[in-house]
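Lab channel / #folding
Pinned by the channel admin:
"Please post every new chain as: sequence first, then the structure tokens as a reply. Keep commentary short and put observations after the output so the thread stays searchable."

First post following the new format, from NK:
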Amino acid sequence: MLSNRYKFYKDPGRQEGKWRFFYHYNKKARCMTVHFANACHLAPSGLKCYVPAESKVNKRQPYIVMQGWASEVRIKNGVAHIL
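Reply from TO:
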């Protein structure tokens, strides 16, 4: 269960009950990394994204990330499921 501080995050694109997530390839860990609700989750066997995502270009590394809005992230058998 997420703490109440995430429920009051102000963002014009935010939908009720959803929080920002983003994922990218982590070269040091040699796997995908999913960031959700101020936590970093390693997904050594990959990920499955069941919600719309868009690319974002950063000025610093990681240069390209995929981001979107999700209600939860689950890790099963090393695979991150973004719901």
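NK: Confidence is low (pLDDT under 50) at residues 1-9.
TO: also worth noting, The chain is about 0% helix and 50% strand.
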